[in-house]
Amino acid sequence: MLPTPTTDSVDYDLVYEPAEDSFLLLDLLEEQKEFLDTHFQTTQNGDKPHVVAGEVPLVLEIGTGSGIVTTFMHKNIIKQGLFLTTDLNLHACQASLTTSRENGGTPYLDTIRASLSSALRRRLVDVLIFNPPYVPNEQVPSRPDDDNSSSWLDLALEGGEDGMEVTNVLLDGLDSVLSDRGIAYILFCKRNNPEKVAESMAQRGWKTFCVGERRAGWEVLSVWRFMK
């Protein structure tokens, strides 16, 4: 098992604390390493990974929170890549850079305060990772006016009707986000009806695959892979 990055400097009163969903992503992304190496034709040249053909992959984590997932990715899974994180929460954006730096860092990481992938040009992303606000609620919380409000934590958790309002926005525009070789890894809870989501995406021409699931208390979490 690969080491889990530390997040000691993150203020969990303002930023989502890594939990069962975060650790499920880490475990399943570790299992996906061989698949990703093959997909991007990555070989090992001594201690350094080398992309045989094409450009190094651009990895985007949406809703980065503490930055633990992106740090895990650049340290262990895609060691030769460009990395971006986005989050509406200013403190989460800052945390993603701090967590990376405190775990050895990479000069090829930047962060953008933005909703989903709205700040990026079309069809750039090779690997997209999204642990969305998936908890069903009456509505998605409003964006707080105060950067230091604890309400940012609600925005990281509550996904509106069926917990899918935010995720559906991304899925509906996924074609315009991913590159021709792009892959998306998206986390769902059982109440999001991920099988129905996958069926709908398959009807739109996507290859869908559940890379794994795990029970976390009373909830069942799963991560699905989407690619053309």
TrEMBL record:
| A GO BP entry | methylation
Lineage: superkingdom: Eukaryota
Keyword Zinc assigned = no
Entries under Gene3D superfamilies matching the protein:
Vaccinia Virus protein VP39
Q: Which UniProt keywords apply?
A: Methyltransferase, S-adenosyl-L-methionine, Transferase
GO CC entries: eRF1 methyltransferase complex
Q: Which GO terms describe its molecular function?
A: nucleic acid binding; protein methyltransferase activity; S-adenosylmethionine-dependent methyltransferase activity
Cite the PANTHER family for this sequence. METHYLTRANSFERASE N6AMT1
Family, as annotated: Belongs to the eukaryotic/archaeal PrmC-related family.
- What protein name is recorded for this chain? Mtq2p
